[in-house]
Amino acid sequence: MKLYGSYTSPFVRHCRILLLESGLPCEFIVTDGVASSAKSPTKKVPFLEDGELFLTDSCSIIKYLREKNMQAFCFTAIEYDRFCLVNTLLEASVNLFMLEKDGILPAQSAYLQRHVARIQSGLATLDDMRWPSAGPYNDAELRLLCFLDWALFRKRFTFDEYTNLTAFLAGARAYQPFTQTIPHG
Ligand SMILES: N[C@@H](CCC(=O)N[C@@H](CS)C(=O)NCC(=O)O)C(=O)O
After folding, report:
1. Whose CA is nearest to atom 19 of ligand 1?
2. Whole-structure pTM over 0.90, yes or no?
3. Atom of ligand 1 nearest to the CA of 8
4. 56 and 89 fall within a common domain
């Protein structure tokens, strides 16, 4: 297998955590925007090659890795809904980050203000939920951890007021696959 990605992407990090947990052999190929534009129809990372198989999204990659390791991707509808909720906030946050690099700010767009609002209401909702104090984690939990740590890494927002989320992330600092994939670069 070959996983294409970066050391900063939260989507790639989720895949890397599953690879560390499973021990499945996989080459990691650092891929920039030029290479992802050439190699993937989404022009995004991650993407994965396994022989004839080509997967273009972290969600399908995670499902594939879980199944290869005889595990389920999102066992229940509730876990899947949490995964989707976190993913919606993560996609919105990455979108705002990318647009900001191009000089486009939420103040210039009602739709981007809606992104900001959905991130705030989503975080408040997630903070009202119960999260485990230690790993291993399911995919909704891993996605949330990757999202929160990416937000700190990119200085997108702080969430000190969200005590459950803060405690959840603090607990994950003791989980090796999480600490071994800390964003850098
Ligand atoms: N839905 C995709 C999102 C991946 C994504 O947004 N990756 C970012 C890096 S964090 C990217 O490659 N962005 C480049 C672009 O949007 O052109 C997934 O889950 O894999």
Report:
1. 58
2. yes
3. 10
4. no
